[in-house]
Write a structure and sequence with these properties.
The chain has helices at residues 5-19, 21-28, 36-72, 85-88, 182-187, 195-198, 204-212, and strands at residues 76-79, 98-101, 114-120, 123-132, 139-147, 153-160, 174-176, 188-192, 218-222. Strand 4 (123-132) and strand 5 (139-147) form a beta hairpin. The protein is elongated. Strands 1, 2, 3, 4 and 5 form a five-stranded antiparallel sheet that branches. A four-stranded antiparallel sheet has the order 7-8-6-9. Helix content is 37%, strand content 25%. It has 224 residues and is an alpha+beta fold.
Length: 224
């Protein structure tokens, strides 16, 4: 999250006004010095309201910039049909409580499920998001789904982390390990229903690439 000059100036002013309230009272309004605590409390309330307004303005600006960048790359806003959603959510989360949402909300669409999509050189790229987990422990995920009629991928899921970071075993799938690379086997959850088809794909170069990008989760199946 990057503030522009105006937003940075407003944030600085908010912090300084609240922090310097005792000094301002002492020098400018000494008759109210005994009420410093109450004044700072009121200042904090006002500053909090102003901060929320600033953050909402920042979110709108970033959303607009994101929309413009996606449009410049050829993406268009599309409605996601309800029947697509279960198959479009990675296998790891399909049997868990979830709420699909539009990570880049489109104007005028407050109820529907929408995303962004581009078809280029035979590749269909779709962007959307969803929340996974129970009410107080939900995590947000942004998905880039790439589909090609020329691909045939064996099914697998690969993520770095632990169950504490929201990684879950997939029922009926096997977690794979490589004796040649204990670090990868320990940190990466590589799961597949048919491990023998996945072993040739994961070379030492790919082990390093996965560990260098721990926030990325990769799922593959057939043409996706």
């Amino acid at each position: 999250m990057k503030l522009n000059r105006r937003e940075g100036t407003l944030l600085t002013v908010l912090v300084l006004v609240w922090a310097l309230s005792p000094l301002l009272l002492h020098f400018l309004l000494p008759q109210y010095a005994d009420h410093t605590g109450a004044v700072m409390g009121v200042d904090l309330l006002v500053a909090s309201i102003a901060l929320v307004a600033l953050l909402r303005s920042l979110a709108r600006r970033l959303d607009g910039e994101c929309r413009e960048r996606l449009a410049s790359l050829g993406f268009q806003v599309v409605d996601l049909r309800h029947e697509l959603i279960p198959d479009w959510i990675p296998a790891e989360h399909r049997d868990r409580p979830r709420l699909v949402f539009d990570g880049f909300q489109s104007p005028g669409n407050t109820q529907g499920r929408s995303g962004d999509e581009r078809v280029q050189e035979g590749l269909r790229t779709s962007l959307f998001g969803y929340l996974c987990g129970r009410e107080r422990r939900r995590k947000a995920y942004i998905v880039m789904r790439i589909e090609s009629p020329l691909w045939i991928w064996p099914e697998f899921a690969c993520a770095v982390g632990s169950r504490w970071s929201g990684i879950h075993p997939i029922e009926g799938w096997e977690r794979m390990r490589f004796e040649e690379d204990p670090a990868f086997s320990k940190d990466a959850w590589l799961q597949a229903p048919q491990p023998d088809r996945i072993h040739p794909l994961f070379t030492p170069e790919l082990w390093g690439l996965v560990l260098d990008h721990p926030r990325f989760r990769v799922f593959a199946s057939d043409r996706v």
